[in-house]
Design brief:
Layout: E1 2-9, H1 12-16, H2 19-38, E2 42-47, E3 55-59, E4 65-69, E5 78-86, H3 90-99, E6 107-112
Antiparallel strand pairs: 1-5, 1-6, 2-5, 3-4
Amino acid sequence: MEFLFQLYNDETRWDRMTPEVSRHEIGAYLAYTEALREAGVYVGGNPLQATSTATTVRVKADGTSSVLDGPYADTKEQLGGYYLVDVPDREAALAWAARCPCASHGSVEVRPIMAIPSLV
């Protein structure tokens, strides 16, 4: 069963870190990713660039679209990355999410991937 881990934290905390702390944090994520790989549950994942690089697109009811630079919502925590895992069940997903470094300084939203029946 596939789950998406959405990692939320205050993206400005990375700017405030010393190089030593930053190396330690990155090392923790690399070790976590390696643990997922070794367990055979890693499907994919990536960190995201800052919300200042985001663009939001919306299509209105009349069919016209609007494009907004930057994040759409102003929140204390931002989506900073994700992991996609394939585990036996929700309990296993929650156990892996609790081990994610982001869980100790932000939050990890765990969502099951919707199964879409084949149309063929």
